[in-house]
Amino acid sequence: MKKNILALSFFACVGIITSSCASSSGGKSPFLATADSLENNSQPVAKTIITGADQTSEYLKYLRGKRVAMVVNQTSIIGKTPSVDSLLALGINIVKIFGPEHGFRGNASNGAKVSDEKDPKTGISVISLYGKLKKPSKEHLADVDLVIFDIQDVGCRFYTYINTLDHVMESCAENNKELMILDRPNPNGYVVDGPILENHLYSGIGMHKIPITHGMTMGEFAQMLNGEKWLPGQLQCKLKIIKVANYTHDTPYDLPVFPSPNLNSQQSIVLYPSICPFEGTIVSQGRGTYMPFTVLGAPLLKGKYEFSFTPKSIPGMSETPLHQNQECYGVDLRKYDVASLRKSKQINLKLLIEMYKAYPDKAKFFDMSQSKQMGNFDKLAGTENLKKQIISGVSEEEIRKSWEPGLTDYKNMRKKYLLYQ
């Protein structure tokens, strides 16, 4: 095993969409330029991305006179101001807030239960959807005319905000409430890859039969939940989607606000789809450092790699990280050229395969009993086969072949719900 960093083969129009169906049984800035302005006026100038939330002229009139509930967190902004504050200032009647994992202000640790509270700035009640409650109740929506969903996603099956969307759509459908989605770009929207979730591995980190990276925005994903009848009882949610302007799935997009405490850099966001499965192994992904999801390592890899880091308890990020206070040896991905990661449009398997080969005590690499912080690798992968294949020494090429025809079938199904090229 080389001591230097592993070479990676990595993955590397304004409008409103309305779907009206009744319930049935059946950073740089919020406006990231896609290219530098051109001095030669005879050449086309790339347009800037404008999120759904920033296009207030497209939905303010529709909101007036309605009692509005908002499903939001710290990524929910209009310009640089929290969307709740902005809409209140514009005269919109916001009666309550629903908060997802990490809380309304985004300061709760990964997996930590979040309690109900009153927002100290606005005095509006904040109801947690990441504690004992997973979806708004009938009582919560009794005084609500419309629900707004405005949360930044990063495009992965195990990133729980798509689950929050599912639960909110279910509740809206049950209670005949319309859901408005202020759509935002998917920073990993260019990659659709990984095994399709197997039914028996359904969990809080995998609720839908999709690959590891689904390649959709929240608005598109919502249309798929309706269209494939994936909501419980085949419920249908009435949707109004405010599209992102000047966006395609291949458009680079740096998030103006980081989506969770441990995705605190653009580098970590791009690496996340490939690094998160390590949470089901003995290898630390840098939780307990200020560089999570950009480093990998474990104490027993000393001598295999020169780079090292030591996880510590960090309130609000990782209170009891894997290998706490132990020096971990591994790879540093902080300076990897992320521009090259977009070319292959695949999640990375080489890191997982090579670090398994390098680990001296292979029986403990996937051993869930080693730490309560470790996730379930099979649930993260969405299949039991990947772990077996890595242990058996199956090649990357053969592993990828085993994801078919499920992956191709998903890509074809996905096309029906795309709002962007």
TrEMBL record:
InterPro entries to which the protein is assigned, alphabetical: NamZ, NamZ_C, NamZ_N
Domain Peptidoglycan beta-N-acetylmuramidase NamZ C-terminal: from-to ranges: 270-420
Superkingdom, taxonomy of origin: Bacteria
Presence of the UniProt keyword Nucleus in the record: no
Record keyword Kinase present: no
Protein name as annotated: Uncharacterized conserved protein YbbC, DUF1343 family
GO molecular function: peptidoglycan beta-N-acetylmuramidase activity
